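Record type: monomer structure entry
Structure origin: computed from sequence
Chain ID: A
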Amino acid sequence: MAMSGPPSGRRGRGRAPMADINVTPLVDVMLVLLIIFMVTAPLLVTGVPVNLPETRAKGLDQDAKPTVVSIDRDGGTYIDDAQVSDTDLPDRLAEIVSANAGKPEAPQIFLRADKGLDYGRVMRVMAELNRAGLNKVSLVSSPDDADSASAPAGQ
């Protein structure tokens, strides 16, 4: 049985210990997280599924988070993500007004309505908003890619 001694100095001198950090696993993890956030971010924006009408209007700049009033295809009304009955709608709108009573500007309301709805249903909700004193209402639509692609370049 031969015993091996310490490694010879000849073998160990050829390579110095590596002092660099391997960033490849870090980059891999960051790319996976980026893809996850890119996929999930659009799902976090809207809580109530509404088929919005398409327009060629530009988006609005906003500073504060607005209150979103949505009307789905079945006529159900939602404030942010909570469903509200027609009888409770005036009370909930009054709560929004009272919560913003000390602020100099009226609260911003985004109204999202399914394009298959009756126009009268949308107008009833807008009348309740007006009756509550919420006059800063923006109608939300989705961009129309077909019209912008088919429009002549000069227009």
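Annotation 1: The CA atoms of residues 52 and 141 lie 5 Å apart.
Annotation 2: The chain has a mean pLDDT of 78.
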